[in-house]
Amino acid sequence: MDIEKIVIIEDEQEISELIQSQIASFNFTTVPFFDGKKALDYIQSSEAKNIQLFIIDRMLPSVNGLEICKFIRFYNTTKTTPILMLTALSTPEQIVEGLDAGADDYMTKPFDHAILLARVRSLLRRRQLSNRTEENKNILRHKELVLDMDQCKVWIDNQILELTLSEYKILCCFLLSPGKVLTRNQLVEYIQDGPVHVTDRTIDTHIFGLRKKLGEYASIIETIRGIGYRVIGHD
Description:
Arc Repressor Mutant, subunit A
């Protein structure tokens, strides 16, 4: 059986070694790279099997972290593997760039060690959830909220919700990635259909309507100021 791996792409050796020591408790093999091109070469090699998580800096020699994220999402073998971007670039615009490039989560340096471990645990849990059995993958749940992707229907406590197509698509997008911050740009791309133009502000309007219909479940949609939204994950 292949050994489960966490790939760390960080050009500062001291920080790389610190990350490796912090996540040693997960009992995964860590594979460090200090150069973006070498990391990309590895990802496409026969050695890159059973990768559970990527931890990627943005500013790297040869190929930057954003381009690596985009490749990981494009490359069939790794397109669903979680990515944690860990960088000193911390403005809302830079965070949005990282998330839009394909990162699942974004942490800024200097970072708190306990928060790093919590983020890694969360992404690894999400990885396990994404490996659900084939027969259940089209049923999405959040406690008593159930979404059936085959029937395109949503229920709360067995009561069907009457959602617009855009509201349904947004909720589907959230439940497919629980805990993940989704930028407005990502939500626009997800619900865009045909010639109808969807804007950032249109997304906010759909979120407002969706929250009203969710009633007591409205609080599961969390606003991330200046970036977007996410549905709070649950165990």
